[in-house]
Amino acid sequence: MNPTTSPSASPAAAESPTSRPGPPHGAAHAWRVVWRITKLNFKARLEYRGEFLMGIAVGAIWQVSIVVFASVLLTRFPGLGGWSSSDVLLIASMRMLAHGLYVLFLGRVQYMNLLVQEGVVDPCLIRPMPVYRQIQLAFFPVNAIGDLVVAVGLFVAALQRSSHDWTAGRITYVVAGVLGGMLVEAALFTALAAAAFHFPATSYWSQWLEELMGTFGSYPLSILPKAASAAFTFIVPLAFIAYFPAGVLTGHGGAMGVPEALAVASPFIGLMAFVLSRLLWSWSLRRYTGVNG
Amino acid sequence: MTARTTQAPAPAAPTAFATAVSRARRIAWITPRGELLAPPRMTATAVRLLVQVCLVVYLWRGLYANTDSSAGLDETQAVGYAVLAVLANRIRGLDRRAGRDTVIQHLHFGTIVYWYLRPMRPQRYYALRALGDQLYGFGWVLAGYVLSLAVGVVAPPASLSVAGVFTVSMLLGQLVLYYVMMLVDLLCFWTLRNEAALLILVFAQNLLSGVYAPLWYFPDWFITLSMFLPFQATLGVPLSIYVGRIGVDDAFGQMAIQAVWIVLLALLTRRLWDRAGRRVVAQGG
Question: Do B203 and A79 touch (CB under 8 A)?
Fold first, then answer.
């Protein structure tokens, strides 16, 4: 990590203890530090302009590849799993939006195995900032810009094509659903990152999880057999990212293979999953002994 | 000790050819040996392949639940194509990054210089490593294919001629893929930061080669665009031959295009290897 990103290197921290009563504390100070580091990270990514633009393109192309695949399926196989095209589009767009937000705010956990290998985690242990936050501040995710641009575009298109009334309640739920989806994705990758403290080859599983989300997270799981659908609900809970929230919004709540209350509670389940994954992360961090034992 | 060595018959000195073969075998064996010594990773590969194959079978059968044929492919062809695509994608699916053994990592950490200090040209070392990777991956593909045939999710080739043409086309496709991946790796010599470019090419490869879905389902403009790129030659053509979407008579034209891509990419990468060596930069000194 760039030394300038360390909070201890900030001018405030460099001042003599005799000139001030003590280092500043509190949430406001913590957010100021986060903002300052993020700005530095952004400038650092701008150092390589070509790579910066390509990074944006990566996010956009990844999302576009999912859109292309989705439009191919919707064109060739209308009435996917009993869902109309506009409803399927809402699932895809909510998942993409949740994914874009996850990449922007919490996506650095996916690089945990590399950070462990490169010994980046070790100095984080002695800095006055939570390790999880430091990992999230390791670099600025330029690809999130491309991710979000395409996702917002598709989301707007999905809302325009939707025949449902967008009341305040629905809008609130769609926002909660997207945030919940972001947290479910973050929870899954945080759990894998917890394993990366001890098994650096977890990138293999991360790639697979990302593939699964891209392939199966954007469509009605009702096209799959019940066993596969249950696996995507209770083992790898992709269903809570967008399928359940979109199903609730489009009136498929009772036909998704789970009690409707469970589907409605998706945003809350996302929050709970993230809290549990953070506990797992902290437990794993306490047992971290460095890449060389 | 000296007396014993003088009495024993001197072992015949290995020929230069035998030395070269032995060296090539050891280099090609690096990645497979790493995998074979990590049973958890092999188990993970087996689990992942099995689950992924099951999921694509479910997905495509679900999609064909209300229709018999789409884009000239029936359910058996579509499922067979999807399963073979999942298996074939494993051929180069090894995780070299965990071992800090990708070209971009060697350039980043400066260890690329060792490629130029060994008594072997870097391009030959690269080719032997890729050969080992691909042979190891082919073992997985073969096991998965036999299993898929046994449980009936993939139909056998329609005839011996289809099997023969498919085999040749698949080999040509793997050569195209080898050169495309090499081109991406060579790009690292010119750009110090190019993870984004690598990712874009991986997406392009997966989308335009037909890994996500057969190109036959895509709009005409997309199929036309992919005809001018090498990606569909890697997987889309051989798998289409296997499932019968491209007939044997039409296959020879497609294989000629694959051969043209191989020649063009081979010439280009050869030139790039020569230039790359002159600009090796070890970051950090």
Answer: no
